[in-house]
Amino acid sequence: MVGVAGRSKACLDCKRRRVKCDLTEPRCLRCSRAKIHCQGYKLETVWVNRTLEQPGLTAAAAIAGAARLPQRPGQRRLHLLNQLKLECASPVRDPLNFRCRALQVLDGIYTPYLSLEGAYPSAVSWLEAIGEMKEGCDALDQSLLAFCAIQIRVVGENSISYDDTVQLYNHALRNVIEDLARGKGAREETLAAIIALSTCELFLFVKDQSLSIHAHGISEILRHRDVMQPSRYWDRLVVRMCLICIVGGLTHGRALALAPGEWYALLGPAPTDSFAHLLKVAVEIPAILEKAESLVEKRYPESLTARCTDLLTRKFYELKEWRAQKASPYWVVPSTLENPADEKYNDKLFPFALKFHSIATAVEWIFCSTIMLRTVDAALTAGSVGLSSPNNGYFTSTRTFDRRISTTKT
């Protein structure tokens, strides 16, 4: 029955609105499409903490106090985070409920409120997959808790310090190491925990090398893991793992630990306009960059560097073709940012800004454009090696590449 308390299996918001719920976990799609912050399917846990200051606190008083809490988004996130900390300290908890509530903390600050952007995995779909996992895993829950705390701090919440986030991260890392030592590395929950920790490091240790360590660890686990029967959320996890490895490879200019053919098999078939297809195009680029940089350092003959430049050029146009399939992902609006460099001038350095249709669209488009810029830079650098005169044959090749790139619409 629709909206009847005690009988309906609908989410809390659909019960309140007395509408039919589609029962999608971890969050109702009907609420997401209506741009409502779905509260999930279970009542929020209220902890009764009897202290020396409140020795006679009752459950009824705790529930009444929770109902009077301010509902500002920032305060609500902190309240949820504190509850998650208490649940993590408890040996008994509902894993699915814990992870769904962690997603509520991340809604609007890391993930868009609209939970599903399309039928195929995006760069943030790994969180939706974690929200569907029902098996208990302390490493995953601790990693998710650390990630929530880091995201709250990133948006400017001063009540969480950098040391607090590092402490939560280190505690989660110890749990992951213990699971790996017990031979649980092939579990999807353990892989999800590594994904969460790897994403933590993008915000926590900007100049650290630990992302590459996690990327190598992911590759080694995948190399020995049997994926003949993947779960319903495996495709979303593997997209994120591939993304982490590509980012590490592009950052350091090193080939990926897994060969491109192995990543193709893991990613599986995907439409040409999907994010997974973009990863298939990009997965070869780190190896080409490593080869090109090696040739530049050792000043090899032009015939060898020309081969790398041709490969980079081909990859550039493959990326450009993928990006062209995204019909008008953004529109141009006047910039409202104040740049200190513009104070002495009448005209702004960046007078316009790009407004994207969604966070997922922006992430994919900017990621693709960044790789394109990286390939252009590497190709021009490799092409300039050994230049002695304008009649140099390779100079002509580089100049042609430069002209072709400059005439490309971005």
TrEMBL record:
- Domain (Zn(2)-C6 fungal-type) spans 10-38
Give UniProt keywords alphabetically: Nucleus
Q: Which PROSITE patterns would you find in this protein's record?
A: ZN2_CY6_FUNGAL_1, ZN2_CY6_FUNGAL_2
Q: Which InterPro entries has this protein been placed in?
A: Osmoadaptation_assoc, Zn2-C6_fun-type_DNA-bd_sf, Zn2Cys6_DnaBD
Matching SUPFAM superfamilies: Zn2/Cys6 DNA-binding domain (SSF57701)
Q: Which CDD domains match?
A: GAL4
Domain of life of the organism encoding this protein: Eukaryota
List GO molecular-function terms, semicolon-separated: DNA-binding transcription factor activity, RNA polymerase II-specific; zinc ion binding
Q: Which Pfam families match?
A: Zn_clus (PF00172)
According to UniProt, the name of this protein is: Zn(2)-C6 fungal-type domain-containing protein
